[in-house]
Prior knowledge:
It is an enzyme of class 5 (isomerase). Helix content is 48%, strand content 15%.
Amino acid sequence: MRIPLLAGNWKMYKTVTEAVEFVRGLKEALAGVQGVEVAVCPPFTALYAVARELEGSNIVLGAQNMHRAEEGAYTGEISPVMLKEIGCRYVILGHSERRQYFGESDEDVNAKVKAALKHGLVPIVCVGERLEEREAGHTERVVGAQVRRSLAGLSGTELAGLVVAYEPVWAIGTGRTASPEDAQQVNAFIRCLLAEMGGQEAARQVRIQYGGSVKPENAAELLGQPDIDGALVGGASLKVDSFGAIVRAALRE
Ligand SMILES: O=C(CO)COP(=O)(O)O
């Protein structure tokens, strides 16, 4: 059984004060919740304070990005060692906003994935097609290439332990969600590909999330699909009520 992972990607939202206040509310809202894993991924500045606030709770911590090197002269960057020490379990890698605005390639993502695994962080590796690619019928070709390149050179055991997030770019922050059937189809395709890359057992274990305008109203149907093992939530993860409702939708499924 794959335990669904509901992760909130806060992007560049919330000061330290706002983050701590939010997490206090979320802890209360999710007290006693079991059977799903819940993670929050605040901006770097709030990680330390949020980590302290989460101690002893059923919510875990993730970061939104990292550098591939352990340390070095890379002004403005954060290393996997730093994230691990602060208490992160997850790190989002290759988010489409990183690819689009910061020029991250699949090769960059691959190097970061390997560095994350080396330091005991679980990567949440994001893939997804743009609107024109979907409309041209190239979704599987684009997503397939991203998966193959971003996860190249990993063993079956390594693949089994990570998380892939299918996030169609046209559904991010637009209010436009992939239909549950479309999302299921791509997630199942990714799982097949991972079976080719790392074997059936790895494919059976790896968790594949869906992301892109997930909200309380559509969460249950998306999370009810057999190959959707949780959600990577942007906007709706910034409010306790909406994120809590999405977590509860996963519990029902
Ligand atoms: O990019 C996302 C999560 O990583 C999705 O963002 P929205 O949920 O705001 O569409």
